[in-house]
Amino acid sequence: MGTLGFWRLAQADPDWIAAVDPDGTPHRAGDLLARADRLVHALRVLGMETGDGLCGLVPNGSDGLVLYLAALQAGWYYTPVNWHLTGPEIGHIVADSEARAFFVHERFAAEGTRGAAASGIDPSRVFALGDVPGARPVADLVAGHPATAPAGRTAGATMHYTSGTTGRPKGVRRPLSGLDPDDAAELMTFLLAMFGMTPAGGNVHLVTSPGYHTAVTQFGGSALHMGHTLVFMDHWDAEEMLRLCERHRVTSSHMVPTHFKRLLALPEEVRGAYDLTSLRWMIHAAAPCPVPVKRAMLDWWGDCVYEYYAATEGGGTVATPEDWKKHPGTVGRPWPISELLIVDDELRPVPPGTPGTVYMKMAGATFEYKGDRAKTEAGRLDDFFTVGDIGYLDGDGFLFLCDRKADVIISGGANIYPAEIENELMVHPKVADVAVFGVPDEEWGEQIKAVVEPAAGVEPSPELAAELVESLRGRLSTMKWPRSVDFVAEMPREPNGKLLKRRLRDPYWEGHDRAI
Length: 516
Description:
Elements: H1 6-12, E1 17-20, E2 26-28, H2 29-45, E3 53-57, H3 62-74, E4 77-80, H4 87-96, E5 99-105, H5 109-119, E6 126-129, E7 136-137, H6 138-142, E8 157-158, E9 161-163, E10 169-173, H7 181-188, H8 190-193, E11 204-207, H9 214-225, E12 229-232, H10 238-248, E13 252-255, H11 257-264, H12 268-271, E14 281-284, H13 291-301, E15 305-310, E16 316-319, H14 321-326, E17 333-334, E18 338-343, E19 356-362, E20 368-369, H15 373-378, E21 380-381, E22 384-385, E23 389-393, E24 399-404, E25 409-411, E26 414-416, H16 418-426, E27 431-441, E28 445-454, H17 462-470, E29 484-487, H18 501-509
Parallel strand pairs: 1-12, 3-4, 3-5, 4-8, 5-6, 6-7, 11-12, 11-13, 13-14, 14-15, 28-29
Antiparallel strand pairs: 1-2, 9-10, 10-20, 15-16, 16-17, 18-19, 19-23, 21-22, 23-24, 25-26, 27-28
Helix pairs in contact: 1-2, 2-3, 4-5, 7-9, 11-13
C-alpha cells in the first residue's frame, strides 16, 4: 500500500489534469483536492459525522466528482441520484438514505426542489450548484473553510440505489472499512487490474454514461485512483465519442451494448475518420451483447473489448477478448476474488451446461439492502446471493446467461422494473388489469410494452393508449413510460391470482433469441 489513491496522488502532483468536464474545462488534481477538503470542513461544522450520508443530483463532471472525493475521505456514504427521476422518486431516495445534505445542480432544479420537499430534509441542508431557488449556494457553504486535509480522515463509500421486483429502489449499503481513504482507494483498483489496466501515466478514461450508475462510478473512480484522467461526456453521441477518443487519446471506457449498436450504425467513412489506436481497455456490461455485434466491434477496434457480468451487491465474471473468441456469447469466468454457484429450484448445484439460478459471492464483501432485511435475506444462499438471473457454466467454467427470473426490462443498459410501472397504471380508472414487460427492440435491446385489460364499459383505442401513458407524467420518469400499449379482453391469471406474464410476452419474442 502507498502509491495509489487520488488524495495521495493529488498531493504528489497537484498539476496533474485529473478531470475534463463535458464543456472541455480541465481540472487540476490540486484544485479538486482543495474543493473536496473545503467541503469536508464545511459539512463537519454542520454536524456531519462518520457514517452519515449525502446525496447529489448532479450531471456528469467535476461537481459530482468533488462530492464523491469529499465523502470518500470523510467516512460518509455518497448517493448519486438518477437525474431522470421525478420529484417524488428523488424524495424517496433522499429520505431513505437518511441524507444529511442534498446537493442539487441547477439543471435539475425543478425536480430536485420537489424531491427535497418530498423527502422532509431540513431546507437548510439543501445546497445549490448554480441557481436553485430556495437552496443555499455551495460557494456560501464552503466560504472561509481551509483547503487543508481534514483531521481524522477515514474511508467512506458510495451507496447506490438498485431497484427490485417490488419497484421501490433499495440502497446497497456496505459496512465502512475504517481504512485510510487512499489505502481503501488502492484496494478498489483491483477491479481495473483484472482487465490488465495499469497505473502508468498518460492513461485516460472516458466516462460515457450517467454517473449515478454503480459501474460508472466504480470504473471512473478506480481509474482516477490509478492516476488516470477522467474525460466526462454530458450525453452520449456516437461520433462525439470517437472524436473524444482521438482528441484525448483515450485508453479505457465503460460502455453498454446499445453504444456498440449506434457506433456500428455510423457510416463507414465516419467510423474510419478517427484515430482509435490509443484504445486498450473498452469494457462493457449491463446488458446482453448480441454475438454479431460483439464480433463486429472486435473486428473494428481489435482485441481491446472486454466484458464482465456483475451486480451492485458484489461479485462477478470477466471475459477477455481472447476468452470471448473461444467461447462466443460468454460473460466470462469468475473474478479471482469471486465465486459462482448455479442451482436448481431446490437450491441444489447443477452440472455444467444445465441452466439454473446464478448465485455469486465476493471475498470480504458484505452488504444489506438498507432498511429491508427480508429482501437482503431472500436473495441469499449461505454466503452467496442472487439477483435472479438464469444461466449455466460450460465445461471450462465460463458463464452464459439465459433469462431472468424477475421480469426486469433491460433497455439501453438500464434496468427498468415493470411492477413500478404496473402499480402506477393500475390506479387509472379506465384500467381493470395491466401487465408490463420487455419486447424486442433492435436499438435498445428491449422496449417497454404495456398490455391492458380495460375497465368494464371502456373501449380500447389509440386515444386510450395515449391517455394511459400520459397519466404517468410527473409520477414516473419518461424512461419508464411504455413505448406501446396493447389491449386484451381478459388478463391470463392462475386461480390463485398469479399473472401468467410469459403467456403474454412469448408471442412478441417469437423468432428472437431472448438472452435476458
